């Protein structure tokens, strides 16, 4: 039954490829995607696929841990991704691994899932074990792995409601050809995967992303932001503000400065090309404002500093009395509100943060993050946070207590990989 479907799937790829060739994004790495140019040569112990930049960061964490595990010999690993961002991230990881002899890493674009291409890829790469990070179930990849007796693990598994609605229609296929084992990051994700690939194949693990959260008792580097502030002036930071939120944020700034004209506000647009627009917006509202690149010396209370330079947000979190993390007042997915927690600063966010739903609402219930409904609640929350008792050390201790039991995902994945490779090595003897 699968052969006619594969023929149709092959035909669909044959039709799609000429159109994909014209795509600026997909045409990057075309020779590797089609295997028309020389590709990394196997055999590899592990082929690990990271869809894009976020998955590549997690892949690097796993590889660094694998390199430190001292498997008994150098592991040959192929890491692939479907985007330039992912490839760039993997290459940075490759540079870090070069100093450690535990892993020999090759990096390439993920081949197109056309059955002919994927069959050639498995012939060339000859992996013992294939790993998928998070969720990317390509049919020809899975079918070819099964035909070549290559076990497939899916780690740090997550499945959105939207993806579940699509995948569940093909549960018959995925039960027959899906991953041999799925480790999901939550019971909800596990239930969804179970309905798609079979409950017997699904287990739970801690999210690798939690392993990246390391509280800092002090800034690991001198922050130039300190030169713009005085110790007696509270500093309020509005981080990663999106274009769509600007009107709401302006209202919050106005209310906040009216109540506390002794503040300095640091405004970090998500895209710094919005800095000039913000400067004009603030000045038209009668609010003193200056671009960061032109700020010299200590800023006066009541001033909004609009950031138009890169690389200073983390240092600013380490100096702020209160902060809001944008992309969350409107349905934009949210931005990284975990970063200020690393520096002992509890963030305020809006109600929309689906991009970070993996953290779970427990973080709000624990009081480490405050969620507000709109710009009016935001202004009041910022004012309250300025005078909130407690120290950064207290917050960092709370952060440690909250995240400690949620860590260990990287170690769990590495243990599963090593155990499986050892079993495969024994079977080959």
What features would you describe in this structure?
The protein has 429 residues and is α/β, with parallel strands linked by helices. The chain has two domains: 23-212 and 408-428, 3-Layer(aba) Sandwich (Rossmann fold); 224-405, Glycogen Phosphorylase B (Rossmann fold, 3-Layer(aba) Sandwich), CATH 3.40.50. Helices cover 43% and strands 16% of the residues. It has helices at residues 2-21, 24-27, 30-34, 53-68, 84-97, 115-125, 139-147, 161-167, 171-177, 187-197, 246-259, 275-284, 313-317, 339-342, 362-365, 375-386, 392-403, 409-428; strands at 44-50, 75-81, 103-109, 127-133, 152-157, 181-184, 202-204, 235-241, 264-269, 289-291, 304-306, 322-325, 347-349, 370-371. Helix 4 packs parallel to helix 5, helix 6 (115-125) crosses helix 7 (139-147) and helix 11 (246-259) packs across helix 16. It is elongated, with a radius of gyration of 25 Å. It starts with a helix and ends with a helix.
Précis, in short:
43% of the residues lie in helices and 16% in strands.
Keywords:
single chain, 429 residues, Rossmann fold, seven-stranded parallel sheet
Query: How many E strands?
Result: 14
> For the report, how would you describe the main beta sheet?
7 strands, parallel
Total individual domains: 2
What is the fold-level CATH name, i.e. the topology of the largest domain? Rossmann fold
Uncertain spans: none
Major sheet strand order: 3-2-1-4-5-6-7
CATH superfamily of the largest domain: 3-Deoxy-D-manno-octulosonic-acid transferase, N-terminal domain
- How far apart are the first and last residues' alpha carbons, in Å? 35 Å
Overall morphology: elongated
Sheet-strand content, in percent, reads: 15-25%
Using the CA coordinates, give the radius of gyration.
25 Å
Task: Kindly state the percentage of residues in helix.
Answer: 40-55%
Treating each run of at least 4 consecutive H or I residues as one helix, how many helices? 18
Name of the CATH class of the largest domain: Alpha Beta
- What's the architecture of the largest domain, going by CATH? 3-Layer(aba) Sandwich
């Amino acid at each position: 039954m699968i052969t006619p479907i594969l023929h149709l799937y092959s035909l669909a790829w044959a039709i799609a490829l000429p159109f994909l060739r014209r795509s600026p994004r997909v045409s990057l790495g075309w020779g590797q995607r089609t295997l028309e140019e020389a590709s990394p040569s196997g055999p590899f112990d592990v082929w690990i696929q990271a869809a894009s930049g976020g998955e590549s960061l997690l892949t690097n964490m796993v590889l660094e841990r694998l390199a430190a595990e001292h498997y008994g010999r150098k592991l040959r690993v192929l890491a692939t991704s479907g985007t330039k961002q992912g490839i760039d991230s993997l290459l940075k990881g490759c540079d870090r691994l070069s100093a450690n002899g535990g892993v020999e890493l090759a990096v390439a674009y993920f081949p197109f899932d056309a059955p002919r291409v994927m069959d050639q890829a498995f012939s060339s790469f000859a992996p013992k074990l294939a790993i998928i990070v998070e969720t990317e179930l390509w049919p020809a990849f899975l079918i070819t792995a099964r035909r070549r007796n290559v076990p497939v693990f899916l780690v740090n598994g997550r499945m959105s409601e939207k993806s579940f609605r699509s995948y569940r229609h093909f549960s018959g296929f995925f039960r027959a050809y899906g991953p041999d084992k799925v480790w999901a990051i939550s019971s909800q994700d596990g239930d969804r995967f179970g309905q798609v690939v079979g409950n017997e194949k699904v287990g739970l693990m801690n999210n690798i992303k939690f392993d990246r959260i390391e509280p800092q008792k002090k800034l690991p580097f001198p922050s130039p932001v300190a030169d713009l502030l005085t110790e007696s002036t509270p500093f309020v930071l509005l981080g990663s503000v999106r274009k769509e939120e600007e009107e709401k944020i302006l209202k919050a700034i106005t209310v906040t400065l009216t109540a506390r004209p002794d503040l300095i506000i640091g405004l970090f647009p998500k895209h710094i090309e919005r800095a000039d627009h913000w400067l004009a917006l603030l000045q038209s509202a009668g609010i003193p404002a200056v671009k960061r690149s032109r700020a010299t010396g200590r800023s006066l209370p009541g001033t909004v500093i609009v950031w138009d330079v890169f690389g200073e947000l983390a240092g600013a979190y380490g100096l702020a009395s209160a902060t809001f993390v944008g992309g969350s007042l409107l349905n934009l997915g949210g931005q990284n509100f975990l970063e200020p927690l690393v520096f002992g600063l509890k963030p305020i966010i809006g109600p929309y943060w689906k991009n970070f739903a993996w953290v779970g609402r427990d973080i709000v219930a624990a009081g480490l993050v405050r969620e507000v409904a709109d710009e009016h609640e935001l202004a009041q929350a910022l004012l309250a946070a300025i005078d909130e008792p407690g120290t950064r050390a207290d917050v960092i201790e709370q952060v440690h207590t909250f995240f400690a039991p949620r860590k260990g995902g990287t170690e769990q994945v590495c243990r599963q990989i090593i155990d499986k490779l050892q079993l495969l090595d024994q079977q080959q003897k």
